[in-house]
Amino acid sequence: MDYILLLSKCRQVIGPSMLPTLNQAGDILAVNMVPKWWGQFNTGDVVLMRSPGNPTLHLAKRILGVEGEKVTYLVDPNNSKTIKTVLVPEGHVWVQGDNIHKSYDSRKFGPVPRGLIQGRIFYRVWPPEKIGPIDSKVNPNEPPTK
Known about the structure:
Layout (H helix, E strand, L loop, with lengths): L1 H5 L1 E6 L13 E6 L13 E5 L7 E9 L3 E5 L8 E5 L4 E5 L9 H4 L2 E2 L3 E10 L5 E2 L13
Antiparallel strand pairs: 1-2, 2-9, 3-4, 3-9, 4-7, 5-6, 7-8, 9-10
């Protein structure tokens, strides 16, 4: 069990994009920092990643598709019911915030290179009343209808 702590780091995540899974005011989360070549990321995992638009920023997002999978999503959930399907290219993942109405994610910047993923968020350590594991869900958003 001690080796897990050595490969983990705590990060604070603030913002509305992962509501209701994460608190908008800021949760402190344990991130599994296992090297990308050792760890496997799966659909449903919540990950800490560098922003494709600004690598100095870190984002928390949920993986909705890994390489070779098709992802169907609402193009603009605030203004349209238009859906689109993409095939996630090799070496990439498709990420979205659980709060699709307030998230800057793959719907804006496209598939994310796996190299931008820092680790898998697996446990909330603060606030005390919400301490516990972070659920992996396949798709927390309502599925688009065709």
